[in-house]
Design brief:
The protein is of the alpha/beta class. It contains 21 helices and 23 strands. α4 crosses α10 and α6 packs across α7. It binds iron/sulfur cluster, nickel (II) ion and copper (I) ion.
Length: 708
Amino acid sequence: MLINRIFNGNDAVYGLTEGAVDNAIAQYGADKAISFPNTAYCLPCYYAVTGVKVKTLGELKEALGVVKSLMTRNHELDDALMSGVATALCAEFIEVLKFIDGANPYEEPCYGHLSDAIIRELGVPLVTGDIPGVAVILGSAPTAQEGVNLIKSYQAQGILVTLVGGIIDQCEEVGFKTGYGLRVVPLGKDVTSVIHVVSVAIRAALIFGNVTPGDAGALLAYTSQRVPAFVNAFKPIDDVILAAGAGAIKLGFPVISNETENIAEVPGALIQQLDTAAMNATSLEARGIKIKVTKIDIPVAFASAFEGEIVRRGDMQVEFDGSRVDCFELVKSRDLSEVEDHKIELIGPDFDEFEVGSKHSIGYVVEVAGKSMQPDFEPVFERKFHSYINCIEGIMHTGQRDMIRIRVSKETFNAGFRAKHLGEVLYAKIKNEFEAVVDKCQVKIYTNPEDCTKLRHELAIPAFDQRDERLETLTDESVDVYYSCIMCQAFSPSHVCVVTPERLGLCGAVSWLDAKATNELDPAGPCQVITKERVIDESLGAYEDVNEAVENFSHGALNKVTLYSIMQDPMTSCGCFECICGIEPFSNGVIIANREYSGMTPLGMTFPELASMTGGGVQTPGFMGHGKHFIASKKFMKAEGGIERIVWMPKELKDTVAERLNATAKELYGIENFTDMIGDETIATDPETLVTFLTEKGHPALSMEPMM
Ligand code: SF4
Ligand code: NI
Ligand code: CU1
């Protein structure tokens, strides 16, 4: 019965797809190019399952024949599940047709196709558990309010929610805000748009998992074991939805539904839950997702889903703006006797004493004490404040140190949120995340302008200066150990980052100090000490100790890496790198592209295309993922001549790194304003124009030895 319905649904979708493809060929011709925007994987699902990149309508027609071959009809459960996969592939074909001629068929609030960059960005929050799962909600909830409540329940747990069909209108009906920044992503109103979240799961396997396209077995194993997704499908469930659901089940994603008619439960895979309010718990249990809870005593929600939320000027109750007045945030270690645990003090007026929409000073000092606390951890904790405060519903935080800006929304203020609640959040998070070293923690919040001015200059700035001096002296040579990081192995099973003072993790989120703190906090955790006693080649950054560690932590997948070369045994990439650099043979240089850059590079490849050549924990000489901060490092490609090799970067990235990069170039090579010699997209996106520009500027790479 169930199986027959899946076959029917699959046949129906196949018929529709065939018709749509034929029509498109009649209209545009078989040579017409087709693609989704901002992906290097063509039709990602079809490519991952078969290993074939489909680029034209004619090829799509051929691919349809392959899909047909998956649609076996021996009435076995396995046939039904494969028909589910075939249905998903058909949905991808129907969807790609919508993008013909570069059209973007999706209008606000719907997103449709999601870019490769978004998937890379999701890497770290998924491994750290900040995003513990991915929910796919499909159809209309019994009432709009129940639907929104379900979404909110996931949002409060940090789960990324994607929406398909009627639930999208239901959100609009009750005025519920959606958007990628809120981790609630409406995909599209047609059922076929569900493929856009399937495509995310599948590209995760290609990007992070080093799954070979065409190896359907490895693909399905990856999605079932490593992508914590599940489906909530509201009734009515017709044959087509059922067939799509079979596809989800084959990928390892359980389907939870309130449908009871003509449907049977399949334990662990297709589960009935009639009560919308209970769907959350049923889903998490079915997918085995555990939620870390930090109990925080504040009147609004606290969840990573609110991290990207924006508070607009008109919605703002009060603002603190370090670019205009004196503001700061600071962690200070103290003696145990100086700290009273959980003491939160407000010195100065509270939020209700400020006029609506006004701008003020704020300064807060989080004082921590503990037997194993080290001053080196202060910046590690402090850097987390941005995320902690942003995760409060209706609060926006940007910047760090004494250049912070905080906005409190009217809604959050009206819910009763006051200054001391900032302290509650900082206290709870610090105690929770750093309990291994923080025995006691207290928070002082200053809102008097005079206090803020005085403390900023007398307490905060000297502390920042002292830390910067410490960072200056932290070089690869000055320390005795490096650290491994294997946090990304949750997705990229053989990837290991080696983190040194002058080379942070490629995600940009793990510096040597971070890794050191992580190791101290969790000695058996993802960051392990790597000694550096047995040098093989100093200029390559090759060490026997490092090789042994990499071999050990990659479970034998890798036996050597160098720290400073992109040609010889370069460090591997998981896939969540902030930047990728690749050699540009005409200039003897390298270009660097950042994840945010969506344009073309002089290598004739976009960021997603470059990025697709490295990842999954394998070495690709000539291409390397890295953090933004690494660009100005004296160790950047040191083996190949260092930063003098950089010939091109997107303008925005160049501006971001200019100050530090120019300082390094001046110190190492005596070059003034080095970034003026580096091309960007406003100067050249092809090698000829680039080389002409570099020649005019006398760029040093031109006279260096070729790298290949
Ligand atoms: Fe992943 Fe490397 Fe960043 Fe660790 S340092 S989180 S392994 S990218
Ligand atoms: Ni926020
Ligand atoms: Cu990663």
